[in-house]
Amino acid sequence: MNAVEVKDLRVSYFGNEALKKVDFTISEGTLVGIIGPNGAGKSTLLKAILNLIPKDSGEINILGSTLKEVRKRIAYVPQRSAIDWDFPIRVKETVLIGTYPSISLLKKPGRKEKELALKCLEKVDMLEFQDRQIGELSGGQQQRVFLARALAQQTDLFLLDEPFVGIDVASEEVIVRILKELRDEGKTIIVVHHDLSKAEKYFDELLLLNKELISSGDVKEVFTPRNIAKAYGGQLSFLEEMVMTT
Amino acid sequence: MMNFIDSVIEYEFLQKALLTSVMVGVICGVIGCFIILRGMALMGDAISHAVLPGVAISYMLGINFFIGAVVTGILTAVGIGFISQNSRVKNDSSIGIVFTAAFALGIILITVLKSSSDLYHILFGNVLAVRPSDMWITLIIGIVVLGSVYLFYKELLVSSFDPIMAQAYGLPTKMIHYFLMTLLTLVTVASLQTVGIILVVAMLVTPASTAYLLTDRLSVMIGLSALFGAISAVGGLYLSFTYNLASGATIVLVATTLFIVALLFSPKQGILLRAIRSKRSKTVTV
């Protein structure tokens, strides 16, 4: 089954086209990177999939169904800049929020949920930081906590917006390892990513985007100098590097 | 001090004043936490002012002033949202435009219908003139507000902390916003007698900010904020009674004093301790 099917998606902000006629499908159990230059509409694509922004046209099916029916089977990790790091919340309560979607209205998280939250914290190697306020952590630790929150949502589809920006190597390794484990369990993971140098190593498939879809599919087919040149246009210094390494 | 306690025991009006202002301190403290964490202090100010025309119109129609207050409060929230979403005018400007308009309309209506002394009482409160009906209204509002926060705690928490995630998993974040605005209007109505429209925002923002400086947990912050609200109410009433000062203003200044103490001495966020710590670490590195 396809995890995500996008047909003829168009999104615009105040008359400026952010995404033009984007079509692709992602099958279940794949780890997909969305890559492209700044302003290519990568985050917009994630938000459109989640219907967080209005789209001009297009049809999106998720896990064989409409978004409305599967919302709770999707975990979304926002960009770090979207979070108020001074909020009075500690690490363990942040992860516990991941269990909220499965708790009905008027009910509160119980022991089962708290245990799950701690288990997820342990997976990202952050158990010892459970009582810290989230702003006291390093960027990489913060990202791991938010990944733990997504794990606590126990979903089939994960959407992560720029999880590797400004984080340390150790955190990056932990996150990549967990994403691959999730993929091996049959989950689908879509990651907005900006660092081309590791794209080949991290992902099974790529969506190369620059307002329109330049190419999509298997990493080896998408990640060619020609496609990259098409997406990144005039950014020559980078192109030269590419040619030299390939 | 003994004199104040004796008087409270002796005079019923003082008991009512004390009870009502403590309740107001508590509910303002609780709702205030969500107001400041959502960056809506100005919105709190706006809604509280926007209650004025509602009170006047209710008086005109002979209905409970509650209904009018809630209606104009919500209309103001909707109007502000409409302008900032549908024009290039920024959110704080649209708040400024809408609430001053509502407030100006309220002033005209009240002065036409009633007297300027009524206006004065609504604007600045008159806690010693609390009637039993005011006390009951405050109690009912208090129960509604505290009950709502208890029941919808997790929805309020996640939509304040990470509204995008809340929206992504299907929470109606807009509805939560207007729900909170409704609670805010109720709290303002409850505060009319104690601190008055003009100073409500202080009771919403100041105790909550004091608590914010002292803890890293939302539940603790809410408890502390309610406590500081109540202490301000009792302390303010005591000082106002003893030295014959304006009650609302005195309550607010007690709240401000608590805030300044926290600002200077908070273990984690205090300016003084921070300065000492950074000086120490400097001398260590030298």
From TrEMBL, chain A:
One of its GO terms (molecular function) is ATP binding. Residues 4-236 form the ABC transporter domain. Keywords: ATP-binding, Nucleotide-binding, Transport. It comes from the Bacteria. InterPro entries: AAA+_ATPase, ABC_transporter-like_ATP-bd, ABC_transporter-like_CS, Metal_Ion_Import_ABC, P-loop_NTPase. Pfam families: ABC_tran. Gene3D superfamilies: P-loop containing nucleotide triphosphate hydrolases (3.40.50.300). Belongs to the ABC transporter superfamily. This is Iron/zinc/copper transport system ATP-binding protein. It comes from Sporosarcina limicola. The lineage of its organism: Bacteria, Bacillati, Bacillota, Bacilli, Bacillales.
UniProtKB/TrEMBL annotation, chain B:
It is found in: Cell membrane; Membrane. GO terms for biological process: cellular response to iron ion; response to zinc ion; transmembrane transport. It is a multi-pass membrane protein. Keywords: Membrane, Transmembrane, Transmembrane helix, Transport. Gene3D superfamilies: ABC transporter involved in vitamin B12 uptake, BtuC. The keyword Transport applies. Pfam families: ABC-3 (PF00950). It comes from the Bacteria. Its main location: membrane. InterPro entries: ABC_BtuC-like, ABC_TroCD. The keyword Heme does not apply. GO terms for cellular component: ATP-binding cassette (ABC) transporter complex. The chain crosses the membrane at residues 17-37, 58-83, 95-113, 134-153, 178-206, 218-239, 245-265. This protein is probably a component of a manganese permease, a binding protein-dependent, ATP-driven transport system. Belongs to the ABC-3 integral membrane protein family. This is Manganese transport system membrane protein MntC. It comes from Sporosarcina limicola.
